[in-house]
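U., I forgot to send this yesterday:
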Amino acid sequence: MDDARLMRYARHILLDELGIEGQERLLAARVLIVGAGGLGSPVALYLAAAGVGRIVLADDDVVELSNLQRQILHTMSGLGRPKAESGRDALAALNPDVRVDARVERLDDARLVELAGQVDLVLDCSDNFATRHAINRACIATARPLVSGAAIRFAGQVSVYDLRDPASPCYHCLFPESDPVSEARCATTGVLGPLLGMVGSVQATEAIKLIAGVGTPLVGRLLSVDALQMQWHTVRFRRDPDCPACARRPPAGAGYSGG
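Result:
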């Protein structure tokens, strides 16, 4: 690590739990962020600032004026541009050491598996259950840890599904795909802008912990926040041994190079 990097990441290196070794793991890490909107914005900014070596930023949408209330990765100059490309430029301006691959595409199951297999960690910053379940399946197929977040109105939640570990539950264990859901969208119900920052910051923190191999990740725990009352709650849950998504997952540890 050269002098410039020692200076840039000094506040991380000062942390005994992280140190130079942990920072070097971040510099060598590869992550996939699905969604460059409200959650993807703080996640991408914090991971780029932390020096994560390669970020694959995937989103097929374009920047609209209504996004700017909460999607802090984008500015007025990005209106009409693909969010992945606008986000890539913002991250490059923040930290030119980080390689950002912008993927302007809607990822189907096969593409998710392909991209997940090329990274060490996946962050679900999407806004619908179908995509979340598709990401979960891809992470099961590739044995990649998944950090998933969601937020609507004044409520948000985060959990980690460490799919390298046969004992870890997956997203489907907690939210079965067959369950009836009434899917709310911020375009029709609204969402508090800073709430996305709160949830996205927790996602970024969990990603850094997993990559650096420090602390205790939110595996088997769903962390929820009610921003209106400013109350945090943790609910514990276990793997469903009969889960149709993860009951026959691949062997643990396949291909992961992080902590």
